[in-house]
Specification:
alpha+beta, single chain, ten-stranded mixed beta sheet, Aminopeptidase
Length: 248
Amino acid sequence: MAHEALIETAGYRARLAAGPDDIAWSLALRAQVFRGDPGAADEDRFDARCRHLIVEDKATGAVVASCRLLDVEDGSRIDESYSAQFYALDGLAGQPGRMLEIGRFCVSPEARGADVLRLAWGALTRIVADENVEMLFGCSSFAGTEPEAYLDAFALLGARHVAPPRWLPRIKAPDVFRFGETPRRKPDAKRAFKAMPPLLRTYLAMGGFVSDHAVIDRDLGTLHVFTGLEVGCVPEARRRALGALVGA
């Protein structure tokens, strides 16, 4: 779509990356958010296969949010996704419809997070509608590798949001924290939601589900859970709110 905006506000514009410079800015933001250094290397073999969605500050041109989008024709191709490196996704292999993996979602600490997040999801809503995507999925990352920092969040996920058995990702990674087997504690919901990454909170608000374990990713210095969302199951109120963002 070149430099055409998918959606914009007075201050920000969301669009697909138009070339190497856009992708370089996106990679720099990713490195800053995930590795603490905008000059660090945060590129892998999946980047060349993905489209890159960016949100930019209209006044400065700075990229303030980004993610990459991997098109998955249907569940039979899900093993080619980034997430499949960490999770056994056999349960989703029979999914007949078009899928979209959202990866490396990040927002600049200097940006107005809520506004930028809404704009990014508005852009994703347009892509989903235009391309008849039936399922979104990806990894939602908690900062750090110590599960003890997020026990309320994991207890809440385990009690309320684990995927149905037919889709439940199985353990594949060597280092995981199993939170779905037996509730370890009664969660404090307010503390739990505050500790969750914004991407995960948004998925859950739309009816998303998660794996029953977190992968301890020492390369990125994160804990992540597989997150999936059936587009057709998004609550009507949330669907209307997202539709309003894109004028649908």
